[in-house]
Amino acid sequence: LPTPPARLPYVPHVPPGALLGKVTATTFALERPRCVFDGHADASDAVWLAVAFANASGAFRNPPSRAEVPPYKQLPTARSYMTLETAAAAYSCSAPSPPVLRVGSDTACRDQGRQDPCNGPLPSPGPYRVKFLLMGCSGPKAETRWSEPILLRRALSPSTIEPAPARHGSAVVVIASILASLGAVLASAVLGALGAKVWGFLCHRDLGTDAFIRRSYRTHHIPPALPQPLRPGCGWSPPGLCHSAPQPPAPC
């Protein structure tokens, strides 16, 4: 009987820090295990990642050889597959390898009919569980624990998107009304103060003009009024004319 693989205490997990696209609708990121397989791996060994639906991980069975590795295209029926075949040396303590692995990033897998394992997009939100499996020429040599369930994001259907924004709550409407009222009061106060200043300026300007007119008004240059002539009447003669002497009667 083959020797059962060693059980390692390592638990795969999604990176805890902020990472762009850490979990999407078809992919998720995993922290790359380092120094986990040291002491169990040889130069010819490879590390695989087993991916299974969370409710099917208990039924997963390690393949006895590479030829029996479950491929990606059987995921809908077999509920599990294996991917990311990598030389064990890439997971050693001294390997300058990227700190993150991405599951489901190979979009060309869905169009290929090959039997080779590939890292294709995940077909549904899951959840999924994963584990790392160290395999040598004679079969599995060591394995990690299964991860906690990993749930992918759900893509929104266009039919579920509301054409108009949702109505705000009554509290938001009340706050908006209060702010609008305060804005109107403030605007009225500003306009009133500005109008008072303009009015005061115009009043001062008019007063200055009247004072100037009054100060420059003089009456001494107007000549005195001349006496008006009296109307003609009895015994009246024009002023300045003397009565002429009586003329002698004409000779007969």
Overview of this protein structure:
The chain has 252 residues and is α+β, with helices and mostly antiparallel strands. The chain has a domain at 6-155: Immunoglobulin-like, CATH 2.60.40. The chain is built from two helices and seven strands. The protein has helices at residues 75-78, 170-215, and strands at 6-7, 28-31, 46-53, 80-87, 100-103, 128-136, 139-143. The strands form two sheets. The protein has a five-stranded mixed beta sheet with strand order 1-7-6-3-4. The protein has a two-stranded antiparallel ribbon with strand order 2-5. A hairpin with a 2-residue loop joins strand 6 and strand 7. It is elongated. The termini are far apart. The chain crosses the membrane at residues 171-196. One of its GO terms (cellular component) is membrane. Keywords: Membrane, Transmembrane, Transmembrane helix. It comes from Helopsaltes ochotensis. This is UPK3B protein.
How can the largest sheet be summarized?
5 strands, mixed
| Unreliable residue stretches | 209-217, 232-245
User: What's the helical proportion of residues?
Assistant: 10-25%
What is the CATH topology of the domain at 6-155?
Immunoglobulin-like
Supply Rg: 54 Å
Q: What is the mean pLDDT?
A: 77
Strand content: 15-25%
**Number of beta-strand segments:** 7
Helix and strand element order = EEEHEEEEH
The helix-and-strand class reads: alpha+beta
**Tally of DSSP helical segments:** 2
Order of neighbouring strands in the sheet with most strands: 1-7-6-3-4
For the termini, the CA-CA separation is 198 Å
CATH class of the domain at 6-155: Mainly Beta
* CATH architecture call of the domain at 6-155: Sandwich
Keywords: Membrane, Transmembrane, Transmembrane helix
Protein name: UPK3B protein
Transmembrane segments: 171-196
GO cellular component, one term: membrane
